[in-house]
Amino acid sequence: MGDDWLVMAFDSTQQALRAEMLLEYAEVDIDLCPTPKEITAGCALSIRFPQLSLDTVRKIITSESVEIRGIYSRQGMGYDSIKL
User: Fold this and answer.
1) Positive or negative CA dihedral for 49, 53, 54, 59?
2) Non-local CB neighbours of 74 within 8 Å, separated by 6+ positions
3) In the predicted model, is pLDDT for residue 1 greater than 50?
4) From edge to edge, which strands make up the β-sheet containing 31-34?
5) Model confidence at 83, in pLDDT bands (50, 70, 90)?
6) Which residues pair with 81 in a beta bridge?
7) What interhelical angle do 13-25 and 54-63 show, nearest 10?
8) If 0-12 CB within 10 Å is exposed, 13-18 middle and 19+ buried, where does residue 16 land?
């Protein structure tokens, strides 16, 4: 995974699958992936997406009230949270 990808983590599988459907409908380039062990979340599924799509993802998550744990960027050996 390159540094230009972000990871969105969830506390429920239902919200992860809902976000996947909404983002695919909006034609955002995403990958469903296992939640990295460095990110504490209640769901084993996360969504990777290009950093360039962050504004679009924020708008969809906010307007559709999708519950997420957070959005993270890869920093060295770990992840840093990005403010929504």
Assistant:
1) negative
2) 1, 3, 5, 7
3) no
4) 31-34, 45-50, 5-9, 70-75, 78-82
5) confident
6) 72
7) 120
8) buried
DSSP structural state of residue 16: H
- pTM as predicted: 0.91
CATH assignment of 5-82?
3.30.70.1530
31 three-state secondary structure: strand
Residues 14-63 have pLDDT tens digits of 999 999 999 999 999 999 999 999 998 899 999 999 999 999 999 999 99
